[in-house]
Inverse folding.
């Protein structure tokens, strides 16, 4: 179906509103957890994005009211860029939480020694070490189990209450929100892996004492499996607490992302 046929069948304003909604939805499939997973083929993600845009379009049109969307090329281009910017700000706030999960896994991989063997992460399509991939996959599983996808979609629909289709967002507020989300990644990663990290530091200190007291012992041969055992044991013991933390932080991330969206 050509563009002229679409406009003739659904109306010019409805087609323009759908295009703007799709521009806001699209960054979700580039930055947000689960939605941007490389495990899904690009065609599946594209169809899902179109389906979400169709579902969210009525909410966007309701927030628009009786105002008409401009049909000029430059005006429409500016609105598309604005919608992409709003969608990226929202999706980045959600994606930063799961970036912290991967950073936590990478820190533990460095301490345990799993960084020596890198594997391909099927969720991001990049090379990742063992615990980084484990935390990434656990985070996505928890995300699905607690209905995080529904929270994200509901939050995306609510962005039209904060910034309607024809209004511009405050760039300063968006930049501040992105800065807070980015700067909080490392702190959140430390919170996730702190118990395991502390145990591994104590294990390293104990092995250092043993090497000084009994220099005949090959500390590397003894310490490597000991650190793996300690690390995996505490990772398994701490996962239930990580699940609760992700649930709380995901709700807070959605709320924070919505607060950063303000009309200029």
């Amino acid at each position: 179906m050509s563009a002229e046929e679409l406009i003739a069948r659904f109306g010019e304003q409805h087609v323009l509103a759908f295009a703007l909604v799709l521009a806001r939805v699209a960054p979700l499939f580039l930055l947000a957890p689960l939605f941007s997973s490389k495990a899904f083929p690009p065609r599946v993600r594209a169809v899902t994005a179109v389906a979400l845009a169709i579902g969210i379009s009525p909410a966007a049109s309701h927030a628009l009211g009786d105002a008409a969307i401009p049909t000029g090329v430059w005006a429409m281009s500016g609105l598309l860029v604005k919608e992409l910017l709003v969608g990226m700000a929202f999706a980045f706030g959600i994606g930063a939480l799961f970036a912290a999960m991967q950073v936590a896994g990478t820190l533990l991989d460095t301490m345990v020694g799993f960084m020596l063997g890198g594997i391909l992460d099927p969720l991001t399509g990049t090379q990742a070490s063992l615990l980084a991939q484990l935390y990434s996959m656990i985070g996505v599983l928890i995300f699905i189990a607690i209905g995080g996808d529904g929270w994200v979609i509901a939050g995306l629909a609510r962005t039209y209450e904060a910034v309607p289709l024809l209004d511009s967002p405050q760039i300063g507020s968006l930049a501040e929100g992105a800065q807070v989300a980015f700067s909080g990644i490392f702190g959140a990663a430390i919170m996730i892996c702190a118990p395991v990290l502390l145990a591994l530091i104590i294990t390293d200190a104990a092995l250092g004492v043993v090497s000084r007291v009994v220099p005949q012992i090959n500390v590397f041969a003894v310490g490597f499996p000991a650190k793996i055992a300690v690390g995996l044991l505490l990772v398994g013991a701490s996962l239930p607490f990580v699940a609760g933390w992700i649930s709380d932080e995901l709700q807070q991330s959605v709320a924070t992302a919505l607060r950063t969206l303000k009309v200029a």
The CA atoms of residues 1 and 185 lie 45 Å apart. Residues 3-259 form one domain. DSSP finds nine helices and two strands in the chain. The radius of gyration is 23 Å.
